[in-house]
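Worked problem 6 (solution included).
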Amino acid sequence: MTQAPTPERWNWRESQTIKHLFWPAVWLGVFLLAYAGWRLYWKVQVQSEQALVRAAGHPADLQALDAWYKQPEGRNAAEVWPAAHAAWVEDPALEDWMPSLATQPDSAAGLYSDQEKLGLEYPDEVTDKIRAYWAKNAAAWPLMREAAAIDGCRWKVDLTGGFETSLPHLGEQRQMSHYLDERMRLAGKEGDWTAFAEMADV
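Solution. The predicted structure is:
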């Protein structure tokens, strides 16, 4: 009776597949260990820095930042600024004459020289446009002054959202600040230092 052949045992040491995968697996392991060490190092560094920030009495995380950004005692300028925003009248046709406000590169403001953009030498036509824009927004000016005179200003925002926090009021504030910049330079050019100082306070 013929004896059945004994099946050959698999020798993993001689396997070509194992040989091909051995060094990639080793390097992958080294990379993962290095990455884990790098993450651990920076975690310790960040926690150390956070401890120093907390020791100095400052917020060091989003929850602490949101708690720190509390509503002020007394009047809150953030309750007055929306009225100034509502009273503000935008006029793209006039805004495009002002370098700080122009949004289109091919607008009239884009034709000014660098010196004119600095407010050192605006053409008469431009100063007329700025005055017209200022007159159109005269109703917003007292509200802006009132808001600026209040020490505390805290908007109702949830800062725990980090970079996803919505800050819609900043766009309107930026637009107002750009126009005040134009109007301040015009006041300086005309020698109206009282108006210049009033706008500088805002």
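Discussion: The chain is about 55% helix and 0% strand.
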